[in-house]
């Protein structure tokens, strides 16, 4: 299995760092969409069970990770811009599937509503149809810390809220990642959070109304921020929606413990490849705070909002 990295130019406006895991036996390609403050590294656990079955594409947004050195950061990027980037990458890599995490779901729904011709199925994980009270409290606190470029409190806020069910080792990676962000990344996230708090989230269900491909929504049982109940509000708006709840898991799903990893794998592959036989347990993955098997090239950061 081969990894190819490349910088893909998007509309002569952005340059996007990509990782393409090529699988000679796979006939489908899936592209993964990060949440806020994240890079390709945040999908390390997910890639483990996708690589044996698909060609897998990861990418950094223009303001983040290994993309940021190739772009100007003179103005924030809107979710509509992120949707346009995703649509171009779908065409570039000829992807049939897309999977988003958390607020990556906003851009993904916007993109899917434009009926990309190649996409056959999509997975929306840890995303909900409305901003509930816990999420609003979290975002309002985060907005203040981001505006002040308060790295320490941003990291602490993430780990005490949406990341509270993560193992201690992953929490340390979160804090290390957040403390290394550039000022423009904080400005971008402040813009993003403010946009979420001030705009009507009805646009997301409107997008679901327009989407024609099958959708799978995956949420953690313990996730009070993008709750199972709030995600199921999409049921009235999506023609072919399915829903899966990962038991004993919070917002970060497959990163939290081995059973959640296995259950998320089963849900995802069962939706994308329903006749495939899926191993029930990870072979080399432990999640305790003292021991964690992490791919060396993908251990730099873990935050994904």
UniProtKB/TrEMBL annotation:
Which controlled-vocabulary keywords does the entry list? Hydrolase
**To which species is this protein native?**
Pseudomonas lini
> Which molecular function term from Gene Ontology is one that the record holds?
hydrolase activity
Note whether Hydrolase occurs among the keywords.
yes
InterPro entries, from UniProt?
Answer: AB_hydrolase_1, AB_hydrolase_fold, Carboxylesterase_BioH
Question: Looking at the Swiss-Prot or TrEMBL record, what is one Pfam family this protein matches?
Answer: Abhydrolase_1
Query: What is this protein's record name?
Result: Alpha/beta fold hydrolase
Q: Could you name the domain of life of the organism this protein comes from?
A: Bacteria
Outline the extent of the AB hydrolase-1 domain: 29-258
